[in-house]
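Model: You mentioned two targets. I'll fold them one after the other.
Researcher: Yes, keep them separate.
Model: Target one:
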Amino acid sequence: MNKISDVFKTKKRTFSFELFPPKSEQGYAHLMPTIAELAKLKPDFISCTYGAGGGQRGKTLDVVQYIQDQCHVIGLAHLTCVLHTKDEIRNILEEIKSRNINNVLALRGDPPQDRPDWRPGKDNFKYSSELCAFMRQHFADYFSIGVAGFPEGHLLCPDRD
């Protein structure tokens, strides 16, 4: 079983961990044995977040690949579309696929602190729903796609429907 969607079909409850990508090589060296210890608890999956603007993207994918290849636990890569063009997103998804990562948490993401006024343009996705549709259009069912939502609504989306 490589997809979280399959886990959810077979289990009533799941158990997982969420990690942040390390910001330094020393942090990365400390995180790997920690992941191995967490894997001994037999979580259903382990996810790794994505730095704002993709600053830690490479580390995110390295961590998720380690989770899968070395710890034999399903990995989930977070992906935000803030600051990325559609072409960049396609390239990132190709890289994720090339690493045999099947699970993506598709997020819009927040603008980075150094660019709080960032707004999506014509070459960017405005909402994570657009990212999900793009993934299905270009990668069919390769990815199990997770999303996070705001049931109460969101400032940038005045129409909850």
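Model: Target two:
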Amino acid sequence: MNPVACSAPRRLASFALASVPGSERVALAQVAESVADLNLSPRRLDKLKTAVAEATMNAVEHGNDNRPDLAVEIEVFYSGTEIIVTITDHGGHGGSDWADKGDDTEIPDLDRKLSGEQGPRGWGLFLIRHMVDDLEVTAEGENRTVRLTIRTPVRGD
């Protein structure tokens, strides 16, 4: 058994951001900086940054209703084979419910959106799901957490 694969995740970063427009840019920059030495390809890093930015925007807009007094908390972990980013909002049930609905969620269709058959929103979780290896959304009390996982090259391989 490979001890690297079984190690407990190590926290690389932990920070909180106000729920204001533009917080997603700060989040993606801080996450990128925290994983800079983990040998992600530029393409994988860009996907992670896109997912982090989109999940942060969702937390700000839908979770915390753009309330600057409610923070978005972000943590970055590394297990030796995976980068895990958690993004937590504290909006409770006041904001729109953007929890992951799995395969029951209607897939965004650009033509249907342009024709008015589908609402203009609804791209967030769809986009995130296609940027990372795993996406999980959980709710506990007033907190909602998005957990993004991206597999990494095993060091020494």
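Researcher: Noted. Anything on target two?
Model: The longest strand covers residues 10-18.
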